[in-house]
Amino acid sequence: MKSNIKDKLQKIDKEYYSLLIDIGKVSKDQGLKSYLVGGMIRDLLLNFDNLDIDIVVEDNAKQLADAIVKKFSNCELAARHDRFHTAKIIFNIDGKKIPIDLASTREEIYEHSAALPTVKVSDLKKDLYRRDFTINALAVSILPEDFGDVVDLFNGLIDLKEKKIKVLHELSFIDDPTRMIRAIRFACKLGFTIEENTQRLLKEAVESKQFDNLIEKIRGDRVKIEIRYLFNLPDIESAVKAFFDSGIYRMLSTDLNPRRDVVCNVSTGDNTSRQWLIHLALIIKDLNPEKQEKILKNLQMTGEEIKIIKDGFSAFNRLKEKEPVDSIEIYRELKNLSIESTLIVKLLPNTQDLIRNTLFDEYIEKTSKIKLEITGQDLITMGVKEGKRVGEILDKVLEMKIKNTQMNKNDEVAEAKKLI
Ligand code: CTP
């Protein structure tokens, strides 16, 4: 039976829906067939938000991109990669930028495993067949005459209903081993199970050992993207468990120790997008510094990301040397750290030590939020010369306030005066 999801598409943001209608019309005028593909369809059918618009064009994305840019003055061509037959256009709607990826329907030829494939223009069926899982291989027409019609050549709709992660062909993981991480990511995120044959293929791929220490051999940033998604999942306990139980951790490094003591109560407040760094740090914590360095380098981590992890490790080591520590010592070590580095320190071993743990919680929840009412300017007005000394005095007064949180502005001024 033919499925049509126009009703679901009508529920996405108005601007996005209108754009799909407009692009469909231009497509028809150009005699090209265009389809929405990828994660957006999957998520739409599962009632998740996803406004990542990926369109495939049978068979000329470049022609469609040019025609759209010509027709709409608020649309610009942001990128075009002729080698990959892709283009990115960006609409500007009342100041809001909406990017849309266009790609010609293509097939991928993997000359050898894990390498970047050679891309060749082909038809929709081959384009969908080259994808990772059946639930990600659905397409939806955006042409005016059949807008919303679902093209389901590999039973993706049934697998979505039955909550199954299933590869399209036997070589899927061999062609692209990052799909192994994707398999457990989607399983954890969506609460799906990995279908039996797919599980067998995953196990065989891991046990073949050909992907051991993979990040040393391929562009590690592709693995990093998947690790980031995996360890940013809300159900981090399942994510880390699956990462080790499946053996997929070996792609990162065969030196890793499978760990079961996953700490789940990590809260980075509203900003959860860097939570993955905390888990990566905890996973590599037992390796020697050279091995840690190698993994971070091979994953192509940015300087900022590496700093977050290393700051956490260094503060932890310094505090370990100073045992036993009090709230002031913890404050001194942690005051300049990001929340992620602070949580790395908190979650590293030794946190079974209850006193320390309580001090950390106190730091995160209370101490780090204590602020002085007096400012550097106040001190300058009181006669302190502008410079390093201002900061030193403020710091000392803050330490007093940490010990005595009842201090008000007058008390702060009084303490500062004693130090001048
Ligand atoms: N894809 C694939 N193999 C990969 C990565 C992606 O076959 N290693 C295909 C899938 O069909 C996927 C599409 O490319 O749906 C788009 O990839 P991406 O944007 O990375 O993932 P989404 O499925 O859109 O999901 P998410 O946004 O959650 O990453």
Protein topology:
Blueprint (H helix, E strand, L loop, with lengths): L5 H5 L3 H16 L3 E5 L1 H7 L7 E6 L2 H11 L3 E7 L4 E8 L2 E9 L1 E4 L8 E4 L2 H6 L9 E3 L8 E2 L4 H6 L2 E2 L6 H4 L2 H13 L2 E2 L1 H12 L12 H12 L4 H10 L29 H10 L4 H10 L4 H20 L4 H8 L4 H9 L6 H12 L10 H6 L6 H16 L5 H11 L1
Parallel strand pairs: 2-5, 10-11
Antiparallel strand pairs: 1-2, 1-8, 3-4, 4-5, 6-7, 8-9
Bound molecules: cytidine-5'-triphosphate (CTP).
Description:
The structure is a single chain. With 420 residues, the chain is an alpha+beta fold. The chain has four domains: 6-162, Beta Polymerase, domain 2 (2-Layer Sandwich), CATH 3.30.460.10; 172-265, Orthogonal Bundle (Hydrophobic Seed Protein); 307-369, no CATH class; 376-419, no CATH class. Helices cover 49% and strands 12% of the residues. A seven-stranded mixed sheet has the order 3-4-5-2-1-8-9. Helix 14 (303-322) packs across helix 16 (339-347) and helix 19 (388-403) crosses helix 20. The protein is globular and about 80 Å long. The model has no long low-confidence stretch (mean pLDDT 90). The structure holds cytidine-5'-triphosphate. Cytidine-5'-triphosphate is lined by residues 38-39, 52, 54, 131-132, 136, 176, 178-179, 182. The site of cytidine-5'-triphosphate (CTP) has 11 residues, from helix 8.
